[in-house]
Design goal:
2 copies of one chain form a homodimer. Chain A is built from 9 helices and 2 strands; from the N terminus they run H-E-E-H-H-H-H-H-H-H-H. With 237 residues, chain A is mainly α. Chain B binds a DNA duplex (17 and 17 nucleotides) through helix 1. Chains A, B: Its main location: nucleus.
Amino acid sequence: MTRKKVNLAFIANDSARKATFKKRKKGLMKKITELSTLCGVDACAVVYSPYQPHPEVWPPDPRAAQHVVTQFKRMPEMEQSKKMVNQESFIRQRITKAAEQLKKLQRENREKEMTELMYKCLMGRGGMQGLGVGELNDMGWLIDERLKEISKRIDEALKKGGTGGAVAEKKAEVVDLGGGVEKQQLWSFAEWMGSTSAGEEIMLQFNEGNNQNHNHNHNHNHNHNNAAVMWSNAFFH
Amino acid sequence: MTRKKVNLAFIANDSARKATFKKRKKGLMKKITELSTLCGVDACAVVYSPYQPHPEVWPPDPRAAQHVVTQFKRMPEMEQSKKMVNQESFIRQRITKAAEQLKKLQRENREKEMTELMYKCLMGRGGMQGLGVGELNDMGWLIDERLKEISKRIDEALKKGGTGGAVAEKKAEVVDLGGGVEKQQLWSFAEWMGSTSAGEEIMLQFNEGNNQNHNHNHNHNHNHNNAAVMWSNAFFH
DNA sequence: GTCTCTATGATTAGTAG
DNA sequence: CCTACTAATCATAGAGA
């Protein structure tokens, strides 16, 4: 009965694997909770287990979302960015407008998601007794996933746009705001873009019949002077 | 130096908290990796730390985009495509059209996904010969995730296309900006392509025998870069 | 602040019921 | 299948460089 050093490879034995899975998942969740409480950070984990029909999410109510959203809304650079370079002002106006819509849309879409999940639950399984927790988990997962997506996009936008991107190039030629400020503003821009498109995407997924109106813009490509305006129109309707 | 039992509460001391955070985050990531390999499951964690501007995700790329990136790297046409990337208007045009199509596809796929989920639910948990219910369910989630990834990339491509337009205009007005910008544009284009092909693949998964042809629009543009047209057509088929 | 060290508490593999 | 137990391994708190 001497315990061996654990061999870090797939456990062939089915029952042993499941046992290990259960134990280690529990440990993992505990670790996450501990990290959260000890260090005051938001953290969550998603485990796609073959033993459960849906991914398991921890914490059950991922407040990680809240943190990000809060940070998001706390963006003070947003206001400054309104007064930025002239050439970008029209884009920023649209962004601001779209951001207002975003809030509303996200709220609506979350409701729709929940409704849909409940619907699935009721239709498919003949009732939701006993499944409420799992479905709630799914809801948390959905929301969190979306936020992850947004974060990822922010990351990419910063990486690509921040170093060689169009916005930075243009900005540099018109007015020099100093390195730190410029970066911050670019951040703001990228984040708003990210959130806006996410909102749009979600809306399109659920409002099935409402987006047939893009065609008018698409065949006017010869007009280069207003390319950006066209793009914005197409994008933000 | 007798170590106490850890007090499971917020660590007041700033530096101690940060140290603990670093250590425990590392441990957490290790645990996740171990759980994954030992039990053959997919798992990821997200930590929103105040010490980094963006949330940290583990594994670095949790199953999304993997496929797309792989496909992108496998593209031998990449070198050739540098030429056509110069055609900013062409790219913008394509992005707009592709975005429209893919959003449509998204809606369609969403519906099909729901149908499949309904079907699965009606079948119940006991049945599903051949494939485990959990597996199918996981696949549904996976597909959902991929769809989101696609949306993300489309929106991103739109964003870059629009700002890229700004760069192109600037370039025309002032002077050639050199290789850096070109490379950036290539990336935008390639990423857009990657997302497009991913979308197509998912459509094929659902439309098994029923592959709709969305290509008829593509030959309507009068861009004279035939190589580019062929290349993108190859992706849209 | 970071990195290393190591004793100890925490986790968990293996086993038994 | 599960829970309980134990001991071996692992993670990490605390201290010092």
